Amino acid sequence: MSQKISASVRRKDAVDKAKGAMEYLADLFPVSPLHGRFFYSTIPRGRIKSVELPDLAEGYHIFGAKDVPGKNGIQMVQDDWPVFAEKEIRFIGQIIFLIVGADKAEILRIRDAIRVEYEEETPCYSLEDSEALYGGVQHGDDNIFTQFEVNHGDAASLFEKADRILENDYYTGYQEHVYLEPQSLFAHWENDSIVIHASSQCPFYIRHSITGVLGLPEENIRVIQTPTGGAFGGKEHFPDVLACPLGVAVYHLKQPISLILDRKEDLAFSVKRHPSATHIRTALDKNGNILAMDIDQRLDGGAYESCSMVVLQRAVFTATNVYNFPHVHVQGRAFCTNKVPSDAFRGFGAPQAVFAMECHMNFLAFELGMDPLEIREPYLLVQGDKTVTDGRIHETVILPELTERILEMSDYKRKLEAYKTEPCKGIGFSYFLHGCGFTGSGEQDLIKARIRIVKTTDDLVRVSASNVEMGQGLITTFCKIASETLGISLDRVQYMTPDTGDVPDSGPTVASRSITIVGYLVKKGCEKLKEQWKSGEEQTIFQDYVPSSYTVPWDNVALTGDAYPAYSWGANVVEIEVDPITFEIETKGIWGTYDVGVPIDRRIVEGQIQGGMIQALGYSNLEKLEVKDGRYRQATLADYMIPTSMDFPPMECDVLDNPYDYGPFGAKGVGEMVFNGGAPAFTAAVCQAVDAEIDEIPVLPETLMELKDEGR
Amino acid sequence: MKEGSIDFRLNGKDIKYDGSPLKRLLDVLREDFELTGPKEGCGEGECGACSVFMDGKLVNSCMVPMGSVVGREITTIEAFSETEKGKCLVDAFADAGAVQCGFCTPGMVMASEKVLEQNANPEMDEIRRGLSGNLCRCTGYDMIVDAVKLAAKRGKGLW
Ligand code: FES
Ligand code: FES
Fold it and tell me: Which residues contact A363 (CB under 8 A, 6 or more apart)?
């Protein structure tokens, strides 16, 4: 039965947005006294030999490495990414200068008159080149940014006993976020402080990134989030990369400057999803039972580390997806290449891991002559099972219910049988999960989230935290949690704009943590307020994160314990048809069933499901992004094709309740999990339609044509 | 009239504009008239976030130089959303869950109006075709299609 909280409401921000009244960054500052534009490197690897700058008219400025008052390194997980390239160049599109002035045309003229001479070195573009230290090592002594290894059971000895070993490789490509609002910032100087307005997911990350660069204390840096027109991970760390040079300029000029990337720049030089290559070996006994697995994941991290470490962690800890294999060895490595750095994108390493594992299960089924569901069934995780990091699955796992429901909705079994003899038609299935919250002990040791709830003398309730509304419905869901807990109407609750000068740090808007972790604090805080409620009086409540007592403690060195306190789960089915002449793939049906605990708002959750799934199908089928000589060949939205309203049919989905004791009203994370299952289900469907094995996304007509030419 | 000035109608008012005929309509709307409902998503005619009506036709204002606006009637979301049809569509978008980040939404509302103008009771395929020039990265489009259907249902007689 559906819970009361799940009943859908009209989003608080919907009407303003639809009327065009919501002001995004470029709308808040439509005319700025000064604008900034970057001069980017044009070689993928080498050194700057000499620079020639044009004469500047009054009021025009060029800022570069020598103008950085503090450290020339953007503080993210590491600080290896320079604010401005000084000598070393590691990718095309690296920021060398920021040009600032009043007239945009004059800025462009200055930009085009800057001359930089380089000494070029041999770039390395692929994982193989990076591993072979092609052109010489550029990070550490092995080009590996970061690596993790997990030993669960004793895979090595089981491989010795195996009757049969099956192995295969799986590849995923780049993906660009294409948030509809390009990267946008505006900064000015006010009372000894720099104030940065930014379309962003993590205002406190921006502050953190720039403190050392400007050599200013945190109190003198204020970051204010502006209504954010989509992000999907692309505004997690990349705004830091823009805010730092912008900050340097404002530090010197003490004048307001706006910095808005145009779409071409954004496509060419903003961070992307990590491409991946995964090798999976499976040891089988003579009855076809899986004894052990050995999983080797490699991520292409691009030129600087950014948050590759954290993405890789999630990939490694999601390597076995929804399965309980007793003996598993996982190795994950993120490599340095001479391309735009890879970074956060909805799913954050999990989509790559889930794709590899689901394709591999289909491959095993094919080799063993089994049905795709039949091979999976005995290994599905259940409550109490050990995870790959020797943590536990604490919750009831409702995969059987999710499966039953999706089979019934999609008529999967009948179609799977029928399409065995009908050419060009196929249907595919996938399972997936997503760990809620920061990996390992991050919530407890690093984030330590805190929120504030203020009740005014008018008995209005104001919730303050640092999590942002970026389209996912956070303002509405947070306010719903508060209004439902306090038993007051939704319009008496407000969510305040995240402003580091005002709100407490409840952590970044990432990792499917907003509802699970921070939403829970909103609930707890409101329970406290309810107890102490004094009508007509102003009251303030702070609520801090309290580590859960039920989890298996995390050991950050051994990588054991609960990598995540809870998981969201799902199943997808995709049905397709391939045109026998053009090899175009037409998607005929899309289904999904999900366990998100309890939806805080059913329509908002369904919006995430549909949007996440179409984005995942774009990733699987349309969004080709290739690198040629260090540049993306797809330079505009005409070449890089995200789904339009014509590309995919409507989706049918269902959300089954499975209340989570430590989430607000039983809720768990939604935003990322909904992306994870699209690619493997789609690929499985195409495999059936063309009767061949496909191990790589995006699956394009060209791919299918090649398969045919190879006579498969 | 000043030499070279551009006369047109904007949201029902007569306007004389004396800036450059090469300036983009989108920039003039946003910078000179503070009409920031039309958004710049791409600046190259690919996303539809900057959609306005020009003599009743849906155009991408980022692709229209001021020189070609002479004598035309321009309507932006600010004015359209105040009409009965506009209100009906805005409400339908809000109620159907068609709004997430909202950056595409003003343009989508404008495009939806043109769909309904063509056919007051459009089928799903017609709606999808009519909206195919407007990109949305958040919703996956299903709820936008629902919104247009909802507006068609509620707005009986309006279109
Ligand atoms: S901004 Fe005009 S079509 Fe994208
Ligand atoms: S709602 Fe975000 S792009 Fe459409």
Answer: A166, A168, A693, A695
Cα B96 to the center of its chain, rounded Å = 19
Q: What residue of B is the nearest CA neighbor of A182? A: B41
Tokens of A179: 């948030």
> Could you give the CA distance from residue A356 to residue A85 in angstroms, rounded to a whole number?
36
In this prediction, the answer to ipTM > 0.90 reads yes
Q: What are the two backbone dihedrals, phi and then psi, of residue A669, each rounded to the nearest 5 degrees?
A: -70, 150
d(CA A194, CA A222): 6
Burial A393-409 (b: 16+ CB within 10 A, else e): bbbebbbeebbebbbeb
Task: HSE, CB side, 13 Å, CA atoms: give it for residue A446.
Answer: 15
Q: pLDDT-derived band of residue A413, with 50, 70 and 90 as boundaries?
A: very high
Chain B stretch 38-57, residues whose beta carbon is closer than 8 A to a beta carbon of chain A:
38-44, 46-47, 49
Phi, psi angle pair for A474, to nearest 5°: -60, -40
Cβ contacts of residue A644 below 8 Å, gap of 6+?
B132, B133, B135, B141
Q: Which fold has domain B4-79?
A: Ubiquitin-like (UB roll) (3.10.20)
Question: In this predicted model, what pLDDT tens digit does every residue of A161-179 receive, in sequence order?
Answer: 999 999 999 999 999 999 9
Is residue A14 in contact with ligand 2, taking CB distance under 6 Å? no
The model's pLDDT over A245-258, given as tens digits with 9 standing for 90+, comes to 999 999 999 999 99
User: Is residue A105 within 8 angstroms of chain B, CB to CB?
Assistant: no
Q: Is the full-model pTM beyond 0.90? A: yes
pLDDT computed for residue A512 by the predictor: 87
Whole-angstrom Cα distance, residue A90 to residue A79?
A: 15
DSSP annotation string for A259-280:
EE--HHHHHHHS-EEPPEEEEE
With beta carbons less than 8 A apart as the criterion, state whether A699 and A173 touch.
no
| Domains of chain A by start residue, with CATH | 25-121+177-269 (3.90.1170.50), 276-439+560-709 (3.30.365.10), 449-544 (3.30.365.10)
Tokens of A575: 């049905």
Q: Where in chain B is the domain with CATH 3.10.20.30?
A: 4-79
CATH 1.10.150.120 residue spans of chain B: 81-154
Helix, strand or coil for residue A210?
Answer: helix
C-alpha span between A417 and A321 (Å, rounded):
26
Buried b (16+ CB within 10 A) or exposed e, A578-601: beeeebebebbbbbbbbbbbbbbb
Q: Report the pLDDT value the prediction gives residue A549, as an integer from 0 to 100.
A: 87
Instruction: Residue B56: count other Cβ atoms within 10 Å of its Cβ.
Output: 11
CA A379 to chain CA centroid, Å, is 28
> Which 22-41 residues of chain A touch chain B by CB within 8 A?
22-24, 26-27, 30-31
Residue in B46, B93, B103, B146 to alter for ligand 2 test, most ligand atoms within 8 A of Cβ: B103
The SS3 call for residue A550 is: coil
Please name the residue that has the structure tokens 């505006």. A186
- What distances in angstroms separate CA A125 from CA A337, A341, A353, A486, A632, one per listed residue? 5, 12, 22, 55, 12
Asked if residue B14 lies in contact with residue B5, where contact means CB atoms within 8 angstroms, the answer is no
| Rg, chain B, Cα only | 16
* Residue A189 forms contact with B (CB below 8 Å): no
CA atoms of B54 and B110, how far apart (whole Å): 11
Q: Which helix (H) or strand (E) holds A46?
A: strand A46-52
| CATH tag for B81-154 (out of 3.50.50.60, 1.10.10.10, 1.10.150.120, 3.40.50.2300) | 1.10.150.120
Backbone dihedral angles phi then psi of residue A646, each to the nearest 5 degrees: -95, -10
- The arrangement of strands across the sheet holding B73-75 comes to B13-17, B6-10, B73-75, B51-54, B57-60
Tell me the count of A-B CB pairs closer than 8 A: 179
